[in-house]
């Protein structure tokens, strides 16, 4: 039924202007603003746009909503930190990030950060 459809995903934010600045100016994603509908389209390589919409009672996702595959997680973390992005640290049994905020055990290297609305994003090692 849906095999030939171009599915897309979306998520909410509490302030569309803050999201626009973050995703376009800091993360350098191409965006289209549809101001009449109060949404942004994030243009991700591969042609699968992501919809970002403002929601008055927004609550940040408690899980990773968007992963950015990169060749070098440590380098990506350093570059994003230089732009003012703060990375999450985890210290749980069997799940711990190192001093560089990178998880390096039990799967691909990954580091998590939040957008201005508190949604969780990541940079993750490319596996292909």
CATH fourth-tier homologous superfamily: 2,3-Dihydroxybiphenyl 1,2-Dioxygenase, domain 1
Average pLDDT, all residues: 91
Q: What class would the helix/strand composition place it in?
A: alpha/beta
**CATH-derived topology:** 2,3-Dihydroxybiphenyl 1,2-Dioxygenase, domain 1
Please write the CATH class name. Answer: Alpha Beta
Helix share of residues? 10-25%
Helix and strand string, N-terminal first?
EHEEEEHEEEE
Q: Describe the main β-sheet briefly.
A: 4 strands, mixed
Which spans have pLDDT < 50 for at least 5 consecutive residues?
none
What is the number of independent domains?
1
Shape: globular
Major sheet: order of its strands? 1-4-3-2
Radius of gyration: 16 Å
Protein name: VOC family protein
InterPro entries: Glyas_Bleomycin-R_OHBP_Dase, Glyas_Fos-R_dOase_dom, VOC_core
Pfam family, one: Glyoxalase
Give the topology, please.
Elements (H helix, E strand, L loop, with lengths): L8 E5 L2 H11 L3 E5 L4 E5 L6 E5 L9 E7 L2 H10 L8 E2 L2 E2 L13 E5 L5 E6 L3
Parallel strand pairs: 1-4, 5-9
Antiparallel strand pairs: 2-3, 3-4, 6-7, 8-9
């Amino acid at each position: 039924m849906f095999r030939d459809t171009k599915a897309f995903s979306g998520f909410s934010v509490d302030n569309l202007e803050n999201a626009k600045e973050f995703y376009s100016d800091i993360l350098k994603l191409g965006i289209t603003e549809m101001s009449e509908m109060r949404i942004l389209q994030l243009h991700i390589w591969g042609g699968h746009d992501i919809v970002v919409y403002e929601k008055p009672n927004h609550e940040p996702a408690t899980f990773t909503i968007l992963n950015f595959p990169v060749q070098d997680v440590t380098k990506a973390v350093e570059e994003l930190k230089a732009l003012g992005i703060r990375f999450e640290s985890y210290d749980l049994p069997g799940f711990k990030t190192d001093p560089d905020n990178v998880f390096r055990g039990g799967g691909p290297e990954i580091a998590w950060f939040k957008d201005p609305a508190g949604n969780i994003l990541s940079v993750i090692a490319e596996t292909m």
